[in-house]
Amino acid sequence: MNTISDYVQGSVRVNTLSVVLIGPDDSRRRALAKAFLAEQVTIAGELGSYPNFNSLVKLTESDCDVVVVDLDGDVDMALDLVENICTRNSALTVMVYSSSREPELLVRCMRAGARELLTEPVTGTVLVDAIVRASARRMEFERQKKTTGKVLVFRGAKGGAGATTVASNFAIALKKESGQDVVLVDLNIELGDIGVILGLKSGFSVKDALTNPSRLDQDFVSTLLSEHESGVRVLSASDEYGISPEIENGTLGKLLYILRDRFPYVVVDAGPSLGAAGLIVYEMADLVYLVMQVDIPTLRNAQRIIAHIQAPAKHTPRVELVLNRYDSRNLEIQEGQITKALALPLTWKIPNDYAGVRRSLDTGAALASGNSAVAQALSQMARAACGKAQQNGNKKRWGLFR
User: Fold this and answer.
1) Distances (CA, A) of 267 to 17, 163, 185, 274
2) From CA 187, how far away is CA 267, in angstroms rounded?
3) Of the candidates 97, 116, 145, which is a domain's last residue?
4) What is the DSSP string of 296-312?
5) Which of 172, 215, 313, 351 is at a distance of 20 to 30 A from 59, taking alpha carbons?
6) Rounded CA separation 354/115 (Å)
7) What are the phi and psi torsion angles at 147 (to 5°)?
8) Strand, helix or coil at 102?
9) pLDDT: is 20 or 242 the higher one?
10) Is the pLDDT at 25 greater than 50, yes or no?
C-alpha cells in the first residue's frame, strides 16, 4: 500500500497540507481526522454543522488547502456548501465524504465542484491518492496565480453617466495597448447596450450563462462569446427585453472565475444592481472605475457607492474616479470640491464630444478606433491598466491627468 512517505521524495510536499473537516456526525468526523493525521496532514479545524454565510466567508479566507464536507447529514445543503466554497476560493480542493456510492451522487458532486469523493470507510490507498492530487493541484495553482487575469469593473454613479460607452471603448483601447486577449462582459441583463454600441449581434448572451450554472465551464462559456473586429471578445446582454433572472448563489462568481482564468483582462460593465449576487463583482475586482458627471445627485450616489465598495471585506479593490463629458468651461462644481466630497482624487477626465459619441452610437464605429480627444483619453487609461508608461506630453491637450 502506498503511503505519504512514498511521495515525499518528489516535488509534491504533501505533508504540508492542512484540512478543515465539516460534518454534523462527530464520530464520522473524528474517524476522518484520525485518517488524515495518520498521513501527516494537519487538521486546521472542524465544524460540527454546515456553516452560515459569515462562517463560510471566514472559511474561504483561511489558509487551509483542503475542505472535506460530509454529505450524509443533508445532501442538498452540503452540495450547496461545496458549490459556494468552490466559487469563493478556487484554490481550495473540496472533497466530499459519504456512505453512498450511487453514480448519480457522484455526478452531482462533480457539478458542484468537488474534486474527490471519499466513501465510507476510507482506505489508506484512496486517501493517499486524494491527498497527493490535492498537493499537486495546490502547487499548480501557485504557479498559475501570478498570471491570473485582472478584473476591471466600470460602474456608473448615476444612470446616463456613460459607463457603458466608456467601458466598451476602454476594452478596445486595452486590447490595442496591451496586445493581449480582452473579454468585455455586459452585466446589465435587462437592457444592456454593449452589443448595440459595438455593432455586434449574437445568438447568445450573459443571461444564458447565468441561467445554466450546471453547464458553466470554459467550453460552454466560449460558445457564448462573440468577437468584435478589434479582437475583443464580448459576452453581451440579450437583444430581447427580459426581467433579470434569479441568479443562483455563486453562479456569477463562477462565471467571472472562468473568464479570469482564460483572459488576461476581464472588463465588466456592472450595470444596475444585481442584488446580493452582485457583491462578488466587487470582491473579485482589481480596479473599479466609477464613471460620473458633476451634479449634486451624482456626487451623493458616488459617495454611497464608494462606501459600499470600500467596506471591510476579504478584498477591497482600488477605485478610480472617471469624470466623463468633461468641459472645464461648464464645470459647476470645482475639482477640489469633488475631491473633498468623495475623499478620492479625480483620476481621469474624458473630454466632452457629444457629436463624436452620437456618431459612434449611430454607426457602430468604436470611439477608441479613431484619434479623437476621447480616444486619446481612453488610450491613456488603457496604458495605465496594462502597466505602460504614460504619454506625459499630451496631458494638457487631452484634458487628462493622473
Assistant:
1) 35, 12, 6, 17
2) 11
3) 145
4) HHHHHHHHHHHHHHTSS
5) 215
6) 53
7) -105, 10
8) coil
9) 20
10) yes
pLDDT at residue 330, rounded to an integer? 66
Domain of 66 in residue numbering reads as 5-145
pLDDT of residue 306: 87
Tell me the pLDDT of the chain averaged across its residues.
Answer: 82
Model confidence pTM above 0.90: no
How far apart, in Å, are the Cα atoms of 285 and each of 32, 76, 86, 102, 267?
37, 30, 18, 39, 10
Q: Is the separation of the CB atoms in 14 and 65 below 8 Å?
A: no
Query: Parallel, antiparallel, or unpaired for β 318-326 and 287-292?
Result: parallel
Residues 36 and 18 in one domain: yes
Measured in whole angstroms, the distance separating CA 185 from the mean position of its chain's CA atoms is 11
Rounded-to-integer distance, Cα 50 and Cα 56, Å: 9
The verdict on 163 and 203 lying in the same domain is: yes
- Of the three residues 145, 162, 186, the one that is the final residue of a domain is 145
* Tally of structural domains, the chain: 2
C-alpha distances in angstroms, 116 versus 85, 126, 151, 253, 322?
A: 14, 10, 30, 22, 46
Residues 188 and 272 reside in one and the same domain: yes
Based on the domain organization, do 130 and 204 belong to the same domain? no
136 and 200 both lie in a single domain = no
Q: Own/partner pairs for 53-56, CB < 8 Å, 24+ apart?
A: 56/81, 56/84, 56/85, 56/88
Q: How many angstroms separate the first and last alpha carbons of the chain?
A: 63
Q: What is the pLDDT of residues 90-140, one digit of tens each?
A: 788 999 999 988 889 989 999 889 999 998 888 888 899 999 999 888 887
Domain identity same for 237 and 381: yes
Grid cell 440579450 in the structure block, residue: 238
What CATH number has the domain bearing residue 111? 3.40.50.2300
> What CATH number is attached to the domain comprising 289?
3.40.50.300
Q: Is the pLDDT of residue 280 over 90?
A: no
Cβ within 8 Å of residue 253, ≥6 positions away: 87, 88, 280, 283, 284
Q: Mark whether 137 and 36 lie in a shared domain.
A: yes
CA dist 140 and 243 (Å) reads 41
* Residues in the chain, total: 402
